[in-house]
Amino acid sequence: MVQTKPAALTGNEAMAEAMRQINPDVVAAYPITPQTEIVQIFADFAANGKVKTQFVQVESEHSALSAVVGAAASGARAMTATSSNGLAYMWEILYIASSLRLPVVMPVINRTLSGNINIHCDHSDTMGARDAGWIQIYCEDAQEAYDSMIMAVRIAERARLPVMVMTDGFIISHCMTDMALYPDEAVRAFVGEFKPRYSLFDLDHPISVGPIDLPDWYMEHKEQQSLAMGASKPIVLEAQKAFAQDFGRKDYGLFDAYRLDDAEYAMVVIGSTAGTARPVVDALRAQGRKVGLLRPRLFRPFPAADWANALSGKKGIVAMDRSDSLADFGGPVAQHLRAALYDAPFRPPMMNLIYGLGGREIQPEEIRQIFENLFRHVETGASPRSTSGYWGVREWPVKE
Amino acid sequence: MATLKELAARPNPLAPGHRTCAGCTAPLVVRQVLMATKDPVVVGVATGCLEVTTSIYPYTSWNVPFIHNAFENVAATVSGAEAAYQSFKRQGKMTKEVRFVAFGGDGGTYDIGLQSLSGAMERGHDMLYVCYDNGAYMNTGIQRSGATPMGAHTTTAPAGKVSEGKTQRRKNLAEIMVAHGIPYVAQATATNWRDLNQKAEKAFSIRGPKFLVVLAPCTVGWGYEPEDAVQISKLAVETCFWPLFEVEDGKYKINYVPKEKLPIQEFLKPQVRFKHLFRGDHAATLAAMQKEVDDNWARLQARAAAGV
Q1: What is the pLDDT of residue A387?
Q2: What pLDDT score does B171 carry?
Q3: Are A243 and A302 in the same domain?
Q4: Average pLDDT in the A130-142 region?
Q5: CB-based contacts of B64: which residues, under 8 Å, 6+ apart?
Q6: Confidence grade of residue B18 (pLDDT, cut at 50, 70, 90)
Q7: Burial B9-28 (b: 16+ CB within 10 A, else e)
Q8: What's the total number of domains in chain A?
Q9: CATH code, domain with A326
Q10: How far is A53 from chain B (nearest CA, A)?
Q11: Which pLDDT score is estimated for A398?
């Protein structure tokens, strides 16, 4: 087990530190709030010779991921980082990177997608990208983000799929927290050398990357990609287990379950809001309410059976979504939860709340109210407005 | 400068059997450019005719490492490969000299790929970008681009009862690239092999970003018989619609001055895309097209004469 070093870092600093320790061959990145700091910090590492990385200051996110694709196809360990509209701008290449089976690692600092323009946290950016063929790991805090970046390299290269590692914009990216850092050698030993199976630089065995793939072959390739996504789950679990052993940390698992086993009521919530909810769970427990928390971590591949096993038989569940599908059918967390529970022996009643869009804060007292609404909803059958739809919004017409 | 015999003996980077149309000049551009270096090359190609005709899975025509990413990002993609190369070289993981070449059509270069190209040139990657310019989106069925000449009929700017085809001037891409202050910019044609090969050879000898824009006649989009590609190219040069020139470290040099500059009609008449201009009265448009050519030629001559 390694010797850890205590540090006080912001989420962005923690992720940039992980990138320095991973020491990729190529980083191509573009600034966008709230991710800009990662680019700046990494630029500083490059400018001071602290990394061997060829740092490419591209003119857009589209080019950032395009250059990363070119580098990864050349056998380089390549990374970028982005947020929000930047992720949207590289959308087209997200699918190409995953289809080419390139093991790119990309931190994404969650921020709402325009419009209206708003630079604060929600999950609309990466939730929209959930079907782009990338492994998605959502983190709660800077420590988990740091740890996940290190694990992501191993996961990506073994699964031969790209990985995005998420943290909540500003809430985590810009807030300083105490955490533990690992020695460079330990991180480098864990990620190892990148040995690409194919490379453009195998000059004696030229390959063609990204050919046109017509109806006679396209589906076979898509199926392989789909199978690879399925096969990546044990790779994620292995990486997390190995990481826990090597670095003396907890095994992160597919999700974080807090007082969930014997809970009657459960909240499912991604990201930093889980940290807000945990003391509320404790307080309600102290009052005799058996409540628990499931914080999804791995969202792609989607561990449907694991969610169902953890939540089947509960008296009631509230799915908290920090993005809306705008489908009149709830948010993505709720949609996935419903689908996962379809085959469960007992399907609990469910509430779905859309909360925290565009950085709207959520307080512990609100979490408590949401649990109270869940109890009332299940125990009395009452279905007030607050059991589904948007949480914490003004009533219309707004009187101010 | 290699002789034709020497060139013919060099390995062919693009295998025969690809599916470009008879009379297509894009493969000529690829072969003549890539034969101009003896170093290994890594090639990127933008979505377009060249890509869809040479890399149909499970086949490939490419005897050299090849990557296609998307339409608008070949410059960024190749810049990433070049960055990986620089990184590996610095780390001592690669010692061989490798040349990086990006090929894009005019749609993927003048229009949708301009930002990616501009960024890559500004960043100074050691790469050669080659635009094979056939003056429209030929792959998707002859739609107008920023490279389409004034007066040309395309499927999105068609000639009709109240339209003479494209009404705007084309972009001067070579000048846009010169404005980037890169060490080498040149304009060539697909069919003047000596000129193109010389320019490519010079480009490969220079470290940093280089740009070639090569007129690549398209039998389908321009409307000429496949065997006439060379003749059409020649007329483009003889009318000064497409002067052959190069700009080295900002210094302009005209590579060919026609003995007698032919009127633009000589270039237009053999092409179906301009045939509407020769039915009824289109004197004003023809005059505007002639003026555009004359203006560009005069400006080019002035720059070459001034030695700047």
Answers
A1: 66
A2: 96
A3: no
A4: 98
A5: A206, B13, B34, B40, B41, B42, B43
A6: very high
A7: eeeebbeeebebeebbbbbb
A8: 2
A9: 3.40.50.920
A10: 6
A11: 78
Whether residue B69 and residue A202 make contact (CB cut-off 8 A), yes or no, is: no
Mean pLDDT within A114-131: 97
Domain membership of residue A199 (yes or no) is no
Kindly determine whether residue A71 and residue B80, on different chains, have CB atoms separated by under 8 Å: yes
Kindly determine whether residue A210 and residue B55, on different chains, have CB atoms separated by under 8 Å.
Answer: yes
Give domain status of residue A209, yes or no: no
Say which DSSP state A394 is in: P
Whole-number pLDDT of residue A385:
56
Same domain, residue pair A98 and A156: yes
Q: What's the pLDDT tens digit per position in A276-309? A: 999 999 999 999 999 999 999 999 999 999 999 9
Of A25, A70, A93, the CB nearest to B88: A25
Paired strand residues for B251: B248
E strand residue ranges, chain A: 5-9, 26-29, 54-57, 78-79, 105-110, 135-138, 163-168, 177-181, 208-209, 255-258, 265-268, 291-296, 298-300, 316-321, 350-354, 388-390
Residue A53 to residue B87, Cβ atoms within 8 A: yes
Q: How many angstroms separate the first and last alpha carbons of chain A?
A: 58
Q: Which residues fall within 8 angstroms of residue B284, CB to CB, at 6 or more apart?
A: none
> Does the residue A395 lie in any domain?
no
In chain A, residues with a C-beta closer than 8 Å to the C-beta of B68 are 208-212
What the block records as the tokens of A83 is 């947020």
Q: What is the pTM of this model?
A: 0.97
Question: Residue B296: in which H helix or E strand, if any?
Answer: helix B283-306
Query: Which chain A residues are closer than 8 Å to B119 by Cβ?
Result: 58-60, 63
Instruction: Please provide the DSSP assignment of B122-173 as one string.
Output: HHT-S-EEEEEE-SSBTTTTSB--TTSPTT---SSS-EETTEES--SPPP-H
Q: Strand B66-68 to strand A208-209: parallel, antiparallel, or no bridges (unpaired)? A: parallel
Contact criterion met (CB below 8 Å) for A232 and A225: no
Work out the mean pLDDT of chain B and round it to a whole number: 96
Express each pLDDT in B135-185 by its tens digit: 999 999 999 999 999 999 999 999 999 999 999 999 999 999 999 999 999
Please check whether residues A298 and A333 belong to one and the same domain.
yes
Least Cα distance to B191 among B235, B149, B224, B223 occurs for B235
Query: Are residue A269 and residue A386 in the same domain, yes or no?
Result: yes
Inter-residue contact A354 to A389 (CB < 8 Å): yes
Residues A30 and A150 in one domain: yes
When CB atoms are compared, the residue of A60, A67, A200 closest to B83 is A67
Residue A38 has pLDDT above 90, yes or no: yes
Both A18 and A154 in a single domain? yes
B72-97 burial, b if ≥16 CB within 10 A, otherwise e?
bbbbbbbbbbbbbbbbbeeeeebeee
What CATH number does the domain containing A239 carry? Answer: 3.40.50.970
- The complex's ipTM works out to 0.97
Q: Please indicate, yes or no, whether residues A100 and A77 belong to a single structural domain of this protein.
A: yes
Q: In whole angstroms, what is the distance from residue A36 CA to residue A82 CA?
A: 8
Give the per-residue pLDDT at A396.
81
Both A89 and A232 in a single domain? yes
Domain assignment present for residue A174? The answer is yes
CA dist A367 and B293 (Å) reads: 71
- Enter the DSSP assignment of B42: E
Q: How confident is the model at residue A383 (pLDDT cuts 50, 70, 90)?
A: low
Burial annotation A141-156 (CB, 10 A radius, 16+ → b, else e)? bbbbbbbbbbbbbbbb
Cα–Cα nearest to A64, from A100, A88, A34? A88
Q: What mean pLDDT, rounded, does chain A reach?
A: 96
Which residues on chain A are in Cβ contact (under 8 Å) with B116?
Answer: 59-60, 62-63, 66
User: Hey, what are A136's tokens?
Assistant: 């998605």
What range does the domain containing A22 cover? 5-190+215-247
